[in-house]
Automatic annotation (TrEMBL):
Single annotated GO MF: hydrolase activity, acting on ester bonds
InterPro entries linked to this entry: Ester_Hydrolysis_Enzymes (IPR051532), SGNH_hydro (IPR013830), SGNH_hydro_sf (IPR036514)
Gene3D superfamilies recorded: SGNH hydrolase
Domain SGNH hydrolase-type esterase per the UniProt entry, residue ranges: 6-199
Protein name listed in UniProt: Lipolytic enzyme, G-D-S-L
Organism: Rubellimicrobium mesophilum DSM 19309
Length: 211
């Protein structure tokens, strides 16, 4: 049975839209999360969920901790699981937070760094070779209870799909623009509603089949 590793942030973890700051932690159930929807559509695959709320592609977070840096997280994930046959990477939403001051080009460079790790000889040989699918997250909305953390973020996030696509083509990996399939919840401007999880799971399943 081939194995698919899904690497990402809170939207891969299955965090629901935030209604009020400081609310108790919870997570969408296995019937809702896009990763489990995906698993149901790929019954011959083992799907491994590696979503960490707050994870970035490249930044140690001064508030949430240095472990939010996806570069170290990806190394750990690739050495914790395996052998894998495919990897999806959906990051960039947290990279456009105001406190990082990152341009769309800088965010894309972070994804390039993750591809450098995934496509390295060390990791490819460890797993016997695996395919990669880069998923660009949908653009954020600057609204809701955490809008102050994403002030100015929408402009950068709107430019990411074209940059991610060009990067994926240059590196010879798969690409999916999640924003062409779903939108973020208007409740908090960054997370997905259940129907979006369902649609994204179906889209990723089809993209994985094409790898």
């Amino acid at each position: 049975m081939p194995t698919l590793l899904c690497f990402g942030d809170s939207n891969t973890h299955g965090s629901p839209p935030i209604v009020t700051r400081g609310e108790a932690y919870w997570r969408f159930d296995a019937g809702t999360r896009w990763t489990r929807v995906l698993a149901g559509l790929l019954p011959d695959w083992e799907v491994v969920e590696e979503g960490l709320p707050g994870r970035t592609a490249q930044f140690p977070d001064p508030v949430m901790g240095s472990h939010m840096d996806g570069r170290e997280g990806l190394k750990i994930a690739l050495q914790s699981h395996g052998p894998i046959d495919a990897l999806t990477v959906m990051l960039g939403t947290n990279d456009v937070k105001t406190r990082f001051g990152a341009t769309a080009e800088k965010v894309t460079a972070g994804i390039a760094g993750l591809l450098d790790i995934a496509m390295s000889l060390e990791m490819q040989e460890r797993h016997g070779g695996f395919k990669v699918l880069v998923i660009c997250p949908p653009p954020v909305l600057e609204q809701g209870p955490i809008r102050s953390e994403f002030s100015g973020a929408r402009e950068a996030s709107l430019r990411l799909p074209a940059l991610y696509r060009a990067l994926a083509e240059a590196r010879g990996v798969g690409f999916l623009d999640a924003g062409s399939v779903i939108e973020v919840s208007p409740t908090d401007g960054i997370h997905f509603e259940p129907e979006a999880h369902k649609a994204l799971g179906a889209a990723v399943a089809e993209a994985v089949r094409r790898l």
